């Protein structure tokens, strides 16, 4: 049994899994566990699981001699953080779910609801790879692409909870159609799934982005071409981000960032080529891995206590 | 002689002219005057004129029974507002000029230095067309294109004073080369000068953007095509802005906005077409005309007094 100390009950809810933790105010993790989201059961069942897991975590904290002081929940999609409402989420099925108030009522603790990428950016900017910079753009590249613009430790939310959708900016007017319905979005060219799709279409055999990266590194010409095209479109997107945000550091996270220097080295060179009068941001890999969402949800909840 | 009352000495320095005013704390103008910048004389002479004009304005205020309480100066280019330094400006020739401290020393008043478009956005967001919205994107379209993202009455500056450069985002990978050196920037397709250039190249006779708008309205096919292409690229740029910022209102200013509904109506329709899951911002014309920079410089100076 750990003695004393305050913790935040933190949940990062994704389309397939929930990362859950008890997080201390300094950002260290006292306990972590994972659960399946099973989104196919429908949004009401998912909400039920979220509340059950959160309540059990608060109980676990108390059993371990810790004091749960707040609850932070991160979800994907469009999130209205001011009202604490999950407005819209394609992969979890939320439509206007007042998750913050539901958690507050169930746990009897102050609660905060955040957007998964925005709180991930919050964590990377405060505790991770961007901690030396006041102006940070966190870009998560996985199935989709989304960003968080964090200034002085606070992530921009937007007027309707939808800021940071860098995956849906136009980079290739003649490019493939995006899941959102528009042609040429960054996400339709440079996401991990887009890279896998593109190679699969050209090579005729199912391949993931990680395999494309490995084959490109091994000198395979087709893989190298697909990888290069994705990196170039990504550099176009980041250059647009730099023109609008003018940050000191760009932190690249999500599954694709696991390619490491094979992604970051050519991306840095391509970004440099595109910047003229703008200062080049420091381009670095995310440092917190898939814990970022949980840590960020905890930070957001702690902010509400101040 | 006006009786009593505090005013701010405000200057908006452009490549050709300086708009100058004594501005009351409520944003009304007690006195306005204009001077030539004569940038060809070199940056030192321009700085001299700025300080002379500011000092004379403070004297004029006192002679009129008013109390000058601060000085606000707006300049184009890259502006480090925190340090009060005009870092770089193509059309005035500034390189690392500590204008804020120079003005403070000369006038013996607290001073603030701002970026012309960012303070223009500040004024439009607080006093003008965006005054009902908490999240505003002000876009000035003239010789160039630049933006200011204003949230809760405060304009984003960026890590190096260069935020909001929406004119230099990629919209047409195969498009004309921009003055910045890169191909396909929004400014190279949709600025007033780009529209004039494009029509001139196709028609073979020198024409301004205002004339292109008039001819398009009169049903001339070539003018209509050039106008439509510019509006579509502009809509792509605004859609990118909405994806990243998620604002409630977009305020369009600068010379091109004088086209009124001939610009705003097709632009609104083209923007709507490009938004899928994002909420459509209110798209409106700027309300303060070319006084916005001066008013914004005054607001910025007043903010430093708080």
Automatic annotation (TrEMBL), chains A, B:
<dbReference type="Pfam" id="PF00480">
    <property type="entry name" value="ROK"/>
</dbReference>
<protein>
    <submittedName>
        <fullName>ROK family protein</fullName>
    </submittedName>
</protein>
<comment type="similarity">
    <text>Belongs to the ROK (NagC/XylR) family.</text>
</comment>
<dbReference type="InterPro" id="IPR000600">
    <property type="entry name" value="ROK"/>
</dbReference>
<dbReference type="InterPro" id="IPR043129">
    <property type="entry name" value="ATPase_NBD"/>
</dbReference>
């Amino acid at each position: 049994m750990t003695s004393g100390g305050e913790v935040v009950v933190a949940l990062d809810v994704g389309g397939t899994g929930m990362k859950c933790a008890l997080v201390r105010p300094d950002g260290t993790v006292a306990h972590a566990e994972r659960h399946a989201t099973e989104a196919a059961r429908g949004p009401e069942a998912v909400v039920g699981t979220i509340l059950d897991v959160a309540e059990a975590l608060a109980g676990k904290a108390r059993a371990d001699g810790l004091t749960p002081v707040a609850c932070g929940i991160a979800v994907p999609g469009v999130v209205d953080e001011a009202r604490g409402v999950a407005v819209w989420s394609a992969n979890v099925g939320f439509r206007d779910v007042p998750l913050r108030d539901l958690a507050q009522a169930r746990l009897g603790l102050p609660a905060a609801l955040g957007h998964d990428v925005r709180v991930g950016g919050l964590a990377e900017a405060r505790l991770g790879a961007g901690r030396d910079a006041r102006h940070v753009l966190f870009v998560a590249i996985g199935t989709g692409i989304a960003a968080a613009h964090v200034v002085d430790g606070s992530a921009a939310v937007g007027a309707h909870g939808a800021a940071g959708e860098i995956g849906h900016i136009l980079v290739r007017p003649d490019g493939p159609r995006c899941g959102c319905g528009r042609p040429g979005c960054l996400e339709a060219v440079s996401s991990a799934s887009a890279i896998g799709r593109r190679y699969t279409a050209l090579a005729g055999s199912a391949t993931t982005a990680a395999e494309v990266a490995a084959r490109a590194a091994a000198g395979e010409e087709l893989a190298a071409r697909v990888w290069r095209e994705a990196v170039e479109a990504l550099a176009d997107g980041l250059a647009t981000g730099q023109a609008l945000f003018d940050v000191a550091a760009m932190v690249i996270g999500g599954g694709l960032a696991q390619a490491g220097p094979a992604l970051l080295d050519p991306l840095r060179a391509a970004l440099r080529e595109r910047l003229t009068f703008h200062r080049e941001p420091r381009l670095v890999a995310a440092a917190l891995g898939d814990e970022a969402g949980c840590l960020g949800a905890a930070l957001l909840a702690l902010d509400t206590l101040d």
